[in-house]
Amino acid sequence: LANDYGPAHDHWRVTPAAVRRLFGEQFGANVRVESWGNVAATAGFLYGLAVHEIAQATLDFHDPHYPLLVTVRAQK
User: Cα–Cα distance between 32 and 41 in angstroms, integer?
Assistant: First the structure.
């Protein structure tokens, strides 16, 4: 079974792949997508923790499977 799930194929939620696909339909190759975060940062956000309640090393770790924040820059 091919692995069609993961950072490059996850279009069921806001992920870099989903944003790239969505904006790519209108802007083509002129799309720059970045993501930050991990499952611990996301859980901290959902539980309402303050930044000082989570270790800096935990916040700095980037896990492409669990982005907390996805940004896009698209140019015509």
Answer: 23
